[in-house]
Fold:
Amino acid sequence: QQQVKQSPQSLIVQKGGIPIINCAYENTAFDYFPWYQQFPGKGPALLIAIRPDVSEKKEGRFTISFNKSAKQFSLHIMDSQPGDSATYFCAARMNTGFQKLVFGTGTRLLVSP
Amino acid sequence: DAGITQSPRHKVTETGTPVTLRCHQTENHRYMYWYRQDPGHGLRLIHYSYGVKDTDKGEVSDGYSVSRSKTEDFLLTLESATSSQTSVYFCAISGRQGSDEQYFGPGTRLTVT
Structure:
């Protein structure tokens, strides 16, 4: 129940394409769902996050779609660029008061020129 | 990296040797975390701290101990390193007023031979 399942494991798209990364969870006590972006040799950095009271959030070219009934959420990258090539992690946090995150296993995205 | 430093950045050690990794923050955040990152597993929480001398276990705490004697420092100790502890270790902080974000440090690559 603590898990967050992420797919696909890896993804290759052409420049301008729209990669979609999916995550699913079981525990309805999760109340915050961030996405992190990680470049090789660096720590993860928050990209965008959503709470379950909204179905979609956009920040620039990045959009989270959230389906509360299905317990799924996904990251869409519009007009993807080679600079978006990175590993992306979804995560979820329980509303326990401590800010502990449970992470998905990551998706390695390659955007070809 | 949001005022977080980790030391050392790289370390090679032998099985059975004690190892201490240090995380230092200049942000005065309340919460600090240690994660390990391994291929196929994403980021897994080892231990976390919710204040000076207040720590608790995460999902993969066996073989690790932590200490937090000052707000700014969080130490992770491997009492007797094993090859299964070869990993990249990330420190994270959170707790800025009005923010859910966890900020990650640059990581420490530890190899146990």
In short: The first strand of chain B starts at residue 4 and ends at 7. The mean pLDDT of chain B is 93. Chain B has no helices and eleven strands.
